[in-house]
Description:
Blueprint: E1 2-4, H1 17-23, H2 25-39, H3 52-60, H4 63-84, H5 93-134, E2 141-142, E3 145-152, E4 163-170, E5 173-181, H6 189-205, H7 209-229, E6 239-246, E7 251-257, E8 263-266, E9 269-272, E10 296-299, E11 305-309, H8 311-314, H9 326-333, H10 340-355, E12 363-370, H11 373-379
Parallel strand pairs: 1-3
Antiparallel strand pairs: 2-3, 3-12, 4-5, 5-6, 6-7, 7-10, 8-9, 8-11, 11-12
Amino acid sequence: xxxxxxxxxxxxxxxxxxxxxxxxxxxxxxxxxxxxxxxxxxxxxxxxxxxxxxxxxxxxxxxxxxxxxxxxxxxxxxxxxxxxxxxxxxxxxxxxxxxxxxxxxxxxxxxxxxxxxxxxxxxxxxxxxxxxxxxxxxxxxxxxxxxxxxxxxxxxxxxxxxxxxxxxxxxxxxxxxxxxxxxxxxxxxxxxxxxxxxxxxxxxxxxxxxxxxxxxxxxxxxxxxxxxxxxxxxxxxxxxxxxxxxxxxxxxxxxxxxxxxxxxxxxxxxxxxxxxxxxxxxxxxxxxxxxxxxxxxxxxxxxxxxxxxxxxxxxxxxxxxxxxxxxxxxxxxxxxxxxxxxxxxxxxxxxxxxxxxxxxxxxxxxxxxxxxxxxxxxxxx
Length: 381
């Protein structure tokens, strides 16, 4: 299962009841003004308010409807002023000019708005393709390993950021990684994309997970150099990351590059897989003598779940500056009998409640488990 923050639907969406009601506002306003001018005393003239109708249509309706309302209101004003409800002191030619001019202004306004909406829609399609490139979609089961993922971007109205993850089937087993790129939000998207692309290539061809990490770190270093050549700031790009190989029989190998400790959720509770700290990806050039991370091996039982996450989870602060108590929360709520997707949803909601509705750093969550035989035959990608 893949869960990301989605965009809110447009309130003017014609497919929704609210959208139809919003689009009916210009017609309702026209009827109200027209009837009010007919039934009001001759000393009170409401027909000039008709100029608001095409203006309202320009903001809510289509270009065609705006043109129709502009013409309709101009004709209606003329009929009201000369035939249906004329003023006792003569015709209001200035009011006619105001209504006609309002319609004339509304038409190009509607044209500009619709063009901008079309452009935004096209950009939305581009953003979705970028998201698929950075966070590639995965089937529910990959190489006998079931995967559930959740992502919460810190950047407002964004669905991607500096946290990345992926899972693919390789000749060496199912391989997954999760990483937290230096920085947050959209500024780290390019580095995250570089990591994902390198992982998908290296994980398929390298036998040793340490070599996969080495190639990913080298790519980050090249990314930083290319940014400098392109006029960007001279800085060292790095990422904490965790790379894992999982077999359908439950064997797990993990290499940790300075990342948060993973956890195994089992029938007896939560067990955290602690490893010695090592350099993050991309910093090997600064310390060539530093040792490569040693792989950690263990086995998942039939009911065990491997939980991976980024520090946007552990470093989420509330209004008093207190960090989100992830381990305590997991001890209380993590249960191997619960569906992983439900656990991720509850954790995401608890995070947002802790920070007051919006994270200040990206947060990525992933749960991996050995799939049931029925899942492997019907859902395996």
